[in-house]
Amino acid sequence: AQSVAQPEDQVNVAEGNPLTVKCTYSVSGNPYLFWYVQYPNRGLQFLLKYITGDNLVKGSYGFEAEFNKSQTSFHLKKPSALVSDSALYFCAVRGYNFNKFYFGSGTKLNVKP
Amino acid sequence: GAVVSQHPSRVICKSGTSVKIECRSLDFQATTMFWYRQFPKQSLMLMATSNEGSKATYEQGVEKDKFLINHASLTLSTLTVTSAHPEDSSFYICSAGSGGTHTDTQYFGPGTRLTVL
Fold this sequence. Notes:
The structure holds 2 protein chains of 2 kinds.
Chain A: E1 3-5, E2 10-14, E3 19-21, E4 24-26, E5 32-38, E6 44-50, E7 56-58, E8 64-68, E9 73-78, E10 87-94, E11 101-103, E12 107-112
Parallel strand pairs in A: 2-12
Antiparallel strand pairs in A: 1-4, 3-9, 5-6, 5-10, 7-8, 8-9, 10-11, 10-12
Chain B: E1 4-7, E2 10-13, E3 19-25, E4 32-38, E5 44-51, E6 57-58, E7 67-73, E8 76-81, E9 90-96, E10 107-108, E11 112-116
């Protein structure tokens, strides 16, 4: 069975500090992992994905994520947070049945000035 | 990235009426589109997979007669909420991908806020 866990409902960070939003996954076979961001009353915007290759994936708006196979994790990171990064972040895995995305519960990121 | 649009962005209707939501891929063709429902402060719940030229595949617990899906062309899928009731009020989001493979990025529409009075 495929699943994604985001253990933190909310992450608070000061502007300019590094941020991490955690994600762990469970999947049969090779994982295809994605991060999306959602602003209020909007759809999801694609940030980045891991398919294969380098474990460190760079994406939009200065975000990156590190794939760790041994820890089955795919944490989202950014070296210096901006207030405008405040939003809801979703981790997702595409499973063996490639037509389906399995989403985590979401993590609300609050970046304070 | 690819652009997916939804129309309308917001709709308010009376109980018992039907509401149609359109999802369009603007700059690519999508043989498959997905419909999700999102409750406040919750994650996305996959409702169904919309397949161009064939019947949609519904997730367990989703009433196919309640949520009618039509994928008439490679750029358009519609979701019709029939005989809507207040409990159908939600945020409905569609997604589509251009590659058709399991590594394909899904691009999401901006969502439709449905309020049933």
